[in-house]
Amino acid sequence: MNRLFVMVFGLMLSLVALAQAPEAPVRWQVTVRMTSATEGTAVFKARLQPGWHLYGMQLPQGGPKPTVIDLAASKGVKFTSPLKPDREPLTVHDKMFGIDLNWWDSDIVIRRKFTVTDPSDARIAGKITYMGCNDQTCSPPSDFKFDKPVPKKS
């Protein structure tokens, strides 16, 4: 009977801890949209929890890790534009690092155009390495991996 009580109590504690686990400060969604039969756009959307920010893609040395979207694993496509965010990040002097940093403080969409070179196996694949911070803490650098087939447009 005591063992059963201990097991049930332990299970309940685990469930309570899980229920209180904080939601990830940054969540990514990757989509692929075709604009013609051979051209399209890869869309990377970051959703930020209120009070959090996502570091920009170009940061000075000696600070936190920038957001990096690595598309080297993509196949059957040729990228025809640089990564383009829907708005410029804010530039803020960070007292902890003692340097000017840039970040987005709300949801951000980043796009990159491509041309299909091999429609039989075209994929947008890779990983996003990023850091999210708020006024009190930073998440460690995290990787979000993705692999999306390029849809065919007739």
UniProtKB/TrEMBL annotation:
The keyword Lyase does not apply. It comes from the Bacteria. Residues 1-19 form the signal peptide. Residues 32-143 form the Thiol:disulfide interchange protein DsbD N-terminal domain. Keywords: Signal. This is Thiol:disulfide interchange protein DsbD N-terminal domain-containing protein. It comes from Paramuribaculum intestinale.
